[in-house]
């Protein structure tokens, strides 16, 4: 059998750049490096990823590559859940998590969210919850005491325990639901990033630290913008807030204010260039 060596990251980047040039695809250098890292030296994998994210885009940036990673992880967990909820074999259920690049806490969150829909029988559902509760004890103890060997006891309960508890299938197709806990965490992270961006703009204009911009100025600016369309327009233009930032500052009711301000600012820039 022929053995193919893994390419170095620089080699993958070089080949991807050549392919992108031939295909007329604009790819940022950061995105190319990210694709190369994801491929782990597998050029075919890198090319497939590039083709997947280039479709319908004028420019492939690092955000597009990271979004691909999120989709892949969701696809992987879906495959694992299908095995767990459909197999009658303890060994097959345990094997569902092999090679899965998702931590056990996230797998647990997916299972907790989907067990009620996938196991319609109350008695069987109670068995599944009992297995998950026992698994949670081991996961918590492993995290608290940094004794990660304890996860070996959690995995059979999370996988085989749930699989063997499900003896009655739901009627019709039941889709998997994204965990509400993870969705909430993502929203919280997005909000923090938005506040950080706003604080950075305020700090730059008023010559403050970002922390002082958040604690001293952001509440007042938000209050003023939410009370007056005129001031909202003026502040959006002065601080160069994006529509999403204005929506956050005004409580969600004045997105059009930001759009007017941004358009006005752009017209001003074009005028100055002339």
Q: How would you explain this protein's 3D organization?
A:
There is one protein chain. By secondary structure, the chain is mostly helical. The chain folds into three domains: 9-60, Orthogonal Bundle (Helicase, Ruva Protein, domain 3); 73-165; 181-273, no CATH class. It contains 13 helices and two strands, in the order αβααβαααααααααα. It has a two-stranded parallel ribbon with strand order 1-2. The termini are far apart. Residues 253-274 have low confidence and may be disordered.
Using brief descriptors, characterize the structure shown.
Helicase, Ruva Protein, domain 3, 2 strands, 75% helix, mainly alpha, single chain, 13 helices, extended, 274 residues, two-stranded parallel sheet
Map the helices and strands.
Blueprint: H1 9-23, E1 26-27, H2 29-39, H3 43-54, E2 59-60, H4 62-86, H5 90-95, H6 104-118, H7 122-145, H8 151-165, H9 180-206, H10 210-227, H11 229-239, H12 243-249, H13 255-273
Parallel strand pairs: 1-2
């Amino acid at each position: 059998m022929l053995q193919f060596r893994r390419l170095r990251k620089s080699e993958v980047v070089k080949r991807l750049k050549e392919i992108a040039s031939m295909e007329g695809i604009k790819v940022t250098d950061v995105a190319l490096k990210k694709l190369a890292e994801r491929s782990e030296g597998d050029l075919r994998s890198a090319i497939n990823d590039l083709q997947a994210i280039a479709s319908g885009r004028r420019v492939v940036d690092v955000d597009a590559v990271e979004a691909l990673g999120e989709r892949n992880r969701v696809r992987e967990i879906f495959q694992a859940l299908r095995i767990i909820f459909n197999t009658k074999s303890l060994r097959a259920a345990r094997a569902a998590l092999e090679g899965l690049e998702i931590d056990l806490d996230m797998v647990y969150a997916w299972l907790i969210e989907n067990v009620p829909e996938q196991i319609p029988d109350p008695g069987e559902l109670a068995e599944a919850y009992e297995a998950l509760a026992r698994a949670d004890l081991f996961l918590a103890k492993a995290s608290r005491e940094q004794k990660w060997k304890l996860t070996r006891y959690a995995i059979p309960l999370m996988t085989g325990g749930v699989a063997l508890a499900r003896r009655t299938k739901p009627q019709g197709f039941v889709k998997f639901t994204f965990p509400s806990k993870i969705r909430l965490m993502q929203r919280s992270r997005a909000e923090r990033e938005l506040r950080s961006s706003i604080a950075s703009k305020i700090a730059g204009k008023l010559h403050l630290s970002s922390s002082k911009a958040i604690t001293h100025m952001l509440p007042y600016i938000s209050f003023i913008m939410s009370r007056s369309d005129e001031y909202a327009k003026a502040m959006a233009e002065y601080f160069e807030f994006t529509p999403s930032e204005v929506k956050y500052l005004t409580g969600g009711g004045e997105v059009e204010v930001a759009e007017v301000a941004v358009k006005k600012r752009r017209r001003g820039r074009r005028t100055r260039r002339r």
